[in-house]
Amino acid sequence: MKILYYDCFAGISGDMNLGAMLDLGVDQKYLLKELGNLSIDSYKIKVYKGRRAGITGTKIDVIIPSQKKASSSHVLKKRTFRDISKLIKQSNLSANVKKISLDIFTRLARAEGKIHGHKIEDVHFHEVGAIDSIVDIVGAAICLDYLEVDKVISSPIQVGSGIIHCSHGTFPVPAPATAEILQDIPIKTGLVPFEATTPTGAAIIAATAAYFTERIDFTPQKTGYGLGSKDSSTPNVLRIFLGEISANTEKADDQETGVAVIIECNIDDMNPELYDALMERLFAAGAHDVFLTPIIMKKSRPAVMISVLCDVGKQKAIEEILWLNSSTFGLRSYKVAKSMLRRETVKVKTKYGEITVKSGYLNERIIKSKPEYEDCKRLAKENGVTIQDIYESIRLTKRKKNEH
Question: Which pTM was predicted?
Answer without folding.
Answer: 0.64
